[in-house]
Amino acid sequence: MPTIETDEHKSLRNAVSALGKRHGRTYDREQLWSEAAKLGYLGVNLPEAYGGGGGGIAELSIVLEELGAAGAPLLMMIVSPAICGTVIARFGTESQKQEWLPALADGTRTMAFGITEPDAGSNSHRITTTAHRDGVDWLLTGRKVFVSGVDIADATLIVGRTEDSRTGRLKPCLFIVPRDAPGFGRRHIEMELNAQEKQFELTLDDVRLPAEALVGDEDAGLLQLFAGLNPERIMTAAFAIGMGRYALSQAITYAKDRTVWNTPIGAHQAIAHPLAQAHIDLELARLMMQKAAYLYDEGDDVAAGEAANMAKYAAGEACVKAVDQAVHTLGGNGLTREFGIASLITAARVARIAPVSREMILNYVSHQTLGLPKSY
Question: Residue 284: which of 244, 342, 327, 232 has the closest Cα?
Answer without folding.
Answer: 244
